[in-house]
Fold:
Amino acid sequence: MASTSKYMELADLLAAAIRRGDYASDQRFPTVIELAKAHSVAPNTASRAVQVLKERGLLSGKAGGTTRVRVPPIHQVRSNLRYQTEKDRVLLSEDERATAGVAELDSGVPLASMFENHAQLDVIPAPPDVAETLGLEPGALVLRRIGTRRHKQGAGVGRSVSYMPHDLARQNPALFDVDREPWPGGALHQLHTVGVEVDRIEDVVTSSMPTQHERDEQDIPPGVPVIRVRKISYSTTGQAVEVTDIPLPADRVELRYVTPLRRWS
Structure:
């Protein structure tokens, strides 16, 4: 069994090399055997060092598969004040709305520079929990939108899944046109086109460990949990009009909540 000092020493040495840029992002990393030979250590020592680097978020790859230098994820600051910014933009012209959305403001990365930006639209029976939240009958149809973005080749994707009642969405056939994605102004403007003003948004925040699919797709290091935000938008009549599920790996996101308090006088 490798000594703790030996594999940690090797991990620190390799980490310094990665941070110096000796290994480019998304480049294949040497195999355990190659590392063992290059650094005159036992394969078990090299293997444990690689695992440490995966846990630190410097390497990606499944055991037994190709290990690559991890493409650093974008750090996001998600504030609740973003929703007012999004609503303020609803009444702007399409050209103004198209310049940037709140997702770009969160990450600081312009949409035009994204390596991949994809939307999938389909009509499905609402999942039971979504139907309950939206006040729909079991089996009622919803327009589902799955959005995925990847800022660089080889990076993990960001994902969101939203649901809008089909009876509401069908008032504007353009909402079903994937060629109009990304929609300038986002969900709040989409709802505006069917006569809905959003009055409040509720974020229900939980956390859990990622599924294997999430771990692979979003490039989540071992041991990192996922913050799960369920965003529920309500109209001025108090009706829930959209539900969005947003999984946020905890190694790349900061949730920031600002709560204004009414003054006594």
Notes: The CA atoms of residues 97 and 165 lie 24 Å apart.
